[in-house]
Design brief:
69% of the residues lie in helices and 5% in strands. The protein has 474 residues and is mainly alpha-helical. Helix 6 packs across helix 7. This is DUF641 domain-containing protein.
Length: 474
Amino acid sequence: MTRKVSNFSDLIQRVTASCLLHPLATAASGKEDENSPYDSEENRNEEYEEEENEEYKEEEEYEEERAVGPLKALKVKQMEGLMEEVFETVSSMKRAYVRLQEAHSPWDPERMRAADVAVVAELRKLAVLRERFRRSGGGEGKRKGRRRGGGVASVREVVAPYEAVVEELKKEVKVKDLEVKNLREKLDSAVALSSNGSGEKKPGRSLSKRKLGIQAIAAVPTPELFEAAMVQVREASKSFTSLLLSLMHNAHWDITAAVRSIEAATASTEKYHSTSTTSIVSAHHAKYALESYISRKIFQGFDHETFYMDGSLSSLLNPDQFRRDCFTQYRDMKSMDPTELLGILPTCHFGKFCSKKYLAIVHPKMEESLFGNLEQHSQVQAGNHPRSEFYNEFLGMAKTVWLLHLLAFSLNPAPSQFEASRGAEFHQQYMDSVVKFSGGRVSAGQVVGFPVSPGFKLGNGSVIKARVYLIART
């Protein structure tokens, strides 16, 4: 028994030593972690919860897509409709602007006002569409803000050219207002002058001027209005001639040789030829020869409705409408500054007329000798109009002739132009001498040396005398 106990004690010691040398707790605990029913159940619960959450998220996304889809489609449809309205408005604006441009040439104030109203109306429509676009953009995100800003920028880019046109029209209105004021001042001074009279003028002439001042604001074309326009042509022609002659003197021209050249050019177109090698014009009368040259150039083609700048036959195909159009253009242009007009419409019919006549009157060699270069000549040839004092003076003269031409084709019947021929007998009924004789009467034996400006026979039987330079019969 004692041996069994001893053996049993030895056995316990050996087991105890073995447990101390080889602990089983870690291995057992590892196996428990791998095979524990509690741990595996927790893992399965976690996996199930994750799967359930994913399914829930998918269902939420699906529900959101189902809810947002119709709203998104509606918004896209609204934006498409808005853009269609924008494109239609821009197209309408372009058409209105084209009509505005067409109303400038030929000049039609009624069409111009209507087109201007249409352009402004389309601009207002665009402003309304812009506000609608801003309100419909609505998002708080930066991306939406950028989109909205880009849309507004694009609309502004479209509107910018038309806003510039509106500004130009406003400037033109201001110019017209100033011209109206200047015209009223001139009219008041002309009426005052005609009422005071002049001791050197005949009573009949003073009465005629008073009538002309009244007729200047008439609503229909009249022969008296044509007479007043012819007076303005002569005054403008004298002013331009004086400026050109002074420039010739400053450039040390041989005025006598220039006059002989003008006389030779005049004689080549007349039946009468002078055999004298000396000038028939005295030194202090050179201005009349120069004015004759200018008048002949600028009145060339006056009998045609466009000065033969094109082959138009409107005055023959629809004469009544053409007369109305001419008088409308006359009334619109009368109060305008030609420089401002050509700054806006350099290639209108009046602009082409000015270019053609300037190149005909001022030869390149003449311009180079007067100004030292051909800058103005080059600009006119390119279709532009210089802003020089000399060209502005020329434009003033060209405008008076253009207005006279418009009036001529406004009247029914139209005035008939005539010109005294070189060497013709002097007829007081149809001619007026530019050189005044003692006693106020032309001495016997005087003939036409050369014509200075043309005359006209009017439909009411009155005559605008041709101005001539007289010489003694040889």
